[in-house]
Design goal:
By secondary structure, the protein is mostly beta strands. It has no helices and 42 strands. The chain has three domains: about 25-295; about 305-390, Immunoglobulins (Immunoglobulin-like, Sandwich); about 405-470, Immunoglobulin-like (Sandwich).
Length: about 475
């Protein structure tokens, strides 16, 4: 193969053809990009062979995928990923660069590590890293800028070195960063954000804080895993995304899940309001999942109802089913209303004990008008919380048109349909965000993790209903 040396200016490579893939294929050739030069590939870039003959001191700009099998000895040059469709970084070896620009209105998938020693600039597009072995990795000198809801990492981020680093992680919808100030970090710290419950355990002593926790946030957590020995403090942030229930910022603590307990890792610094703020832990040397915690009954933090469904049976009874993660729950009250405002208790059920449990109730006294149901959960210490309300419409047993309630919604909404079917939740741009399996009847769909705005519900028959998150 011949050598290609690009010393300055812009080198534009566009491969045209009706059926051929656009591709720059380097098979053990020497490719050198000078420090003022740019190689623009409108298509994919394959760097084959085992000898590191690709030398980028300038800028490599790609609209397609990367396939790399060469082991780079250092981090050099700039990589700009600016496709309009999904881009992937693949190969048997990590791709190393000094600077990285992510400007893809779609998604960037990492199937091999992508390492940055300079600055990663997040302009547009979500970086998805499904495997902990294929992270976006920042070296000791690496950092980033401009991470946002529109552009962040949905998956794993690794940082080498000590000092303060803000991990640009989220769930593909919302940026939910976490800061770690490391005084010791021997081999790197790996972080992932998950909008889910880290798991129920009793509250116990042993953390940096003096008081036992009374609550932890069941709606989200961060997995923080050192790849060697690490010591430092971390800062968690809260906003209107998965963080309802804070009555006073003085109640907030960093909650740390170990193998046996949830620990209070203290609050050495707290700032903000009950709507948005941050809390910094004490010094930590043992790492695992973290989330917001509370030491007060006033700040309960979100309780996650796994599901709440209602349906009309063939003989026009109301069948209610719900599942919840329980901890020290005394029981449940089923409440009913005909106007959605004034509810009365129609049944009481005893709690089954700590863990994930399911319940059901059959209401035989169903009126010939729309009715509303909600579940009141009462804890052993007398505190209580409510499920979202769902609506059942008797006429929908024979009605083929789905009904969405409420719309606009806040924490979630119900979809009533007369058959089991799949439902697709789309963004206003038509991008698939979530897929649900509906049962015949009324299905409650939690949506607290969605940002405010307009969304589309697409049913199997092609019908589309626009819904709005307040």
């Amino acid at each position: 193969m011949k050598s290609q040396i690009i010393t300055a200016g812009l080198f534009l490579l566009i491969v045209n053809g009706l059926s051929a893939q656009y591709e720059f294929y380097n098979n053990n050739a020497t490719v050198h990009i000078g420090n003022t030069a740019t190689l623009f590939v409108k298509g994919s870039f394959t760097n084959a062979g085992t000898t590191p003959l690709f030398d980028n001191n300038g800028t490599l700009q790609i609209t397609g995928n990367i396939q790399n099998s060469q082991v780079f000895s250092n981090h050099k040059g700039s990589l700009v990923l600016q496709g309009n469709a999904v881009q992937t970084v693949n190969g048997t070896a990590a791709w190393r660069c000094q600077h990285l620009t992510i400007n893809n209105g779609n998604t960037l998938h990492l199937n091999t590590p992508l390492e940055v020693s300079g600055t990663a600039q997040f302009i547009s597009g979500i970086v998805t890293t499904l495997s902990k072995d294929h992270p976006l990795l920042f070296t000791a000198t690496g950092n980033h800028s401009s991470a946002s809801d529109q552009s962040h990492v949905n998956g794993f981020v690794v940082k080498l070195g000590t000092g303060v680093f803000s991990y640009p992680v989220g769930d593909g919808i919302k940026l939910q960063k976490i800061d770690i100030n490391s005084s010791i970090n021997s081999n790197g710290m790996r972080v992932q954000y998950l909008p889910s419950d880290a798991g129920i355990l009793p509250f116990g002593p042993g953390g940096a804080g003096a008081n036992l926790l009374k609550y932890y946030n069941e709606a989200e957590h961060w997995n923080v895993e050192p790849l060697g020995t690490a010591t430092g403090k971390l800062t968690l942030y809260w906003d209107d995304y998965n963080n309802a229930g804070i009555a006073s910022i003085a109640d907030v603590r960093v909650a740390h899940k170990t193998n046996t307990h949830w620990l209070n890792e203290d609050a050495t610094a707290v700032s903000g309001t009950i709507f948005a703020g941050s809390v910094t832990s004490g010094t930590i040397s043992n790492w695992s999942p973290f989330t917001l915690g509370s030491i007060s009954s006033n700040s309960t933090l979100p309780l996650v109802w796994i599901s709440f469904q209602g349906r009309l049976t063939a003989n026009k009874n109301a069948q209610l089913n719900w599942s919840v993660n329980e901890y020290q729950v005394a029981g449940y009250s089923v409440e009913k209303s005909t106007d959605g405002r004034s509810f009365k208790t129609i049944a009481q059920l005893q709690g089954k004990g700590d863990g994930t449990n399911s319940y059901s109730f059959l209401d035989h006294s169903l009126e010939e008008e729309p009715v509303f149901y909600k579940i009141k959960q009462t804890d052993q210490d007398g505190r209580f919380s409510y499920s979202p309300a769902i609506q059942l419409r008797p006429f929908t047993v024979s009605n083929s048109q789905p009904v969405v309630y409420p719309n606009p919604f806040n924490a979630g909404f119900t979809v009533t349909t007369n058959k089991a079917e799949k439902l697709r939740l789309l963004g206003s741009d038509g991008k698939l965000l979530q897929q649900y399996q509906l049962q015949a009847g009324t299905n409650y769909l939690p949506a607290a993790t969605l940002c405010r705005g307009h969304y589309l519900l697409q049913f199997e028959n092609g019908k589309i209903i626009q819904v709005t998150k307040q």
